[in-house]
Amino acid sequence: MAKIKIMEPLDRFIFQKLEELQSVKDVQKVLDAYSNLDEKPQEIIKALLALSLVAIPLSVILVFYGLNSSLKSDLETKRDVLSLAQNIIQEKSGMQSAQRKFLGQTYVGALNEMQNLISASISAAGLDSSKISVSNFEPIEHEGFITQASLDMKFQDLSNRELFGFLNILSERYKMKFEEVSVKKNDSSNLLEGVMTIHYYSKDNPSSSGY
After folding, report:
1. How far is CA 138 from CA 89, 99, 106, 108, in A?
2. Per DSSP, what are the bridge partners of residue 90?
3. Please, are residues 195 and 154 in contact by the beta-carbon 8 Å criterion?
4. Of 90, 132, 180, 190, which sees the most CB atoms within 10 A?
5. pLDDT (tens digit, 9 = 90+) per residue, 158-176?
6. What are phi and psi of 92, to 5 degrees?
7. CB–CB of 175/200 below 8 Å?
8. Is the CA virtual torsion 179, 134, 192, 101 positive or negative?
9. Confidence of residue 210 (pLDDT cuts 50, 70, 90)
10. Is residue 150 a contact partner of residue 198, using CB atoms and an 8 Å limit?
11. CA-to-CA distance for 163 and 97, rounded, in angstroms?
């Protein structure tokens, strides 16, 4: 099998250009001046030329290496920023999902606002509002502009269906949590009565206040 000589065309091209260069008068003058020099200056010039043949390609390589390192560093930085942005988006999405699951949609920071939610739940359940009363309202501020609104609710003369329907509306629609539930049946009316503590969590949005 014949050997493929990859560098032979390049060598021929270089020697051809050198021959053409020697035919130029200015170049010929330089070569004549070089020939008339003593042996020691010629050796110095040869050494400088040899050094330049190494230094110039090396400089070019170092320049490209530096550019490549810079581009590689920029690419890694962009990848890190992109990865960080994706993590932030995922965490924000997870937080929003958790907020929808545990926080009420309506912000409550005062008693009348909590009473409005209770009244809406009573109407949705079709109950007589006189059978429900609230007391001991207490708002507690938490980090992240989250407010815990707590109160005690007393109920009486409710059937099983009415009570559990009412509690289901409070829990599912308004995300309210129940604590210290005490329920008993009235022997004379066969209806339910009792007390419970309700906690409602909501988030305030300071940007919407205009300040």
Report:
1. 35, 21, 17, 11
2. none
3. yes
4. 132
5. 999 999 999 999 988 888 9
6. -65, -40
7. yes
8. negative
9. very low
10. yes
11. 29
